[in-house]
Amino acid sequence: MNTPSNNKYIYIKLCEEKDNIPLFMQAWWMDAVCINKTWDVFIYKKNEKIIATWVFHYIKKFGFKIILQPQLTQYNGIWINYPEDISISDKLSLEKEAMNNLLEQMSHFRFSFINQNFHYSFTNWLPFYWKGYEQTTRYTYQIQDISTPEKYFNEFRTSKKSHIKKATKSITINNDLSGIEFYNYLETNLKSLNQNVTYTKELFLSLYKASITRNQGCIFSAKDEKNNFHAALFIVWDKTSAYNLISTITPQFRSSGATSLLFYEAIKSMSSKTKIFDFEGSMNEKIEKSFREFGAIQVPYFNIQYINSLIINILCYLKKY
User: Fold this and answer.
1) 65 in the same domain as 160
2) Is residue 253 part of a domain?
3) What torsion do the CA atoms of 16, 211, 35, 73 make, to the nearest 10 degrees?
4) Is the CB of residue 264 less than 8 Å from the CB of residue 164?
5) Is residue 295 part of a domain?
6) Domain enclosing residue 48, as ranges
7) Does one domain contain both 13 and 120?
8) d(Cα 154, Cα 142) in Å, to the nearest integer?
9) 305-314: per-residue pLDDT in tens?
10) What is the pLDDT of residues 75-103, one digit of tens each?
């Protein structure tokens, strides 16, 4: 078990005080998805006030210290405590100042490799570029105003509307599936496709229990009249966004329309809790198409990488070619 750094104690308190630190960067989330507590945070202070933080998960392997995304975590990265009514010029100056400080702290961490996704609100990566980091733009899909279900339903493609109307005749949506039952159902569906769950039951249940305890997670499931499960979703949220963290469907019921209905009902449920529904965008073409048909808009976010080891640089080169 790793001994928590002083910064982690400070950060835990900060997360309790600030409700605008995004979900996947919250201290409780990092505790839940980093089973061995292998996460830490850099903090930039000015005049005893916290200006910015950089939270990250790391592993140690074969003498290398590697910073990666924790499983089931869309992003980590930098959070900046912007003053109210800050001008664009002052905002950019603050970002440069904060990121240069955090990058300096990272340089002393003696990491060998870093690969992180940053929250979509992080739009200025120039200080990273100036330090030799590389960036790849990725995409998620969002419905950015879920306050009025009738309004966003009208934005669905005709095919989605038809699927929902079809499923309504025979499918019921429930919230009574337990965490263990959800994981077992997911595992069964993937095995039928000769695939495996990429994270352990221990990890999933750690996150499930943490989010349910905080009233920031819910499982939605779709069943027919014969009590057959057609699909299920695990949704998590904060005050800004709800996220489609895990979705699964019974392969034989793929054409029942249950998944479309399930998403629609989940979004309606989230409309009283948060503002945005994030489909947890995929770079997979078929999945991207399905999310887009819900009337969701494309939102870019950054994947930032730096190789700080000759050996890893060679290994990455060989893997690529």
Assistant:
1) no
2) yes
3) -90
4) yes
5) no
6) 6-138+302-320
7) yes
8) 15
9) 998 776 666 6
10) 999 999 999 999 999 999 999 999 999 99
Cα distance between residue 256 and residue 222, in whole Å: 10
Distance CA 76, CA 74 (A): 7
Summarised one tens digit per residue, pLDDT across range 278-317 is 998 666 777 788 888 899 999 999 999 998 776 666 666 6
How far apart, in whole angstroms, are the C-alpha atoms of residue 277 and residue 141? 9
**48 found inside a domain:** yes
Structure tokens at 256: 């029942």
Inside any domain, residue 264: yes
pLDDT (0 to 100) of residue 310? 67
Tokens of 241: 């966004």
Residues 250 and 309 in one domain: no
71: Cβ contacts below 8 Å, ≥ 6 apart? 33, 198, 199, 203
- Which ranges constitute the DSSP H helices of the chain? 6-17, 27-33, 88-107, 126-130, 149-153, 158-168, 179-191, 201-213, 258-270, 285-292, 310-320
Same domain, 258 and 167: yes
- Cβ neighbours for 202, distance < 8 A, ≥ 6 positions apart: 35
Shared-domain flag, residues 134 and 153: no
Q: Which position has the token pair 């340089």? A: 107
Q: What is the pLDDT of residues 157-172, one digit of tens each?
A: 999 999 999 999 999 9
Q: 279 and 142 in contact (C-beta within 8 Å)?
A: yes
For residue 4, pLDDT over 80 is answered with no
Residues 78 and 158 in one domain: no
- Where b means 16+ CB within 10 Å and e means fewer, 26-40 reads bbbbbbbbbeeeebb
Instruction: For residues 40 and 83, state if they share a domain.
Output: yes
Residues 207 and 264 in one domain: yes
Q: What pTM was estimated for this model as a whole?
A: 0.92
DSSP state of 25: G
Reduce the DSSP state of residue 276 to 3 states and report it. strand
Instruction: At 237, list the tokens.
Output: 């949220």
CATH number of domain containing 91: 3.40.630.30
Q: How many domains does the chain have?
A: 2
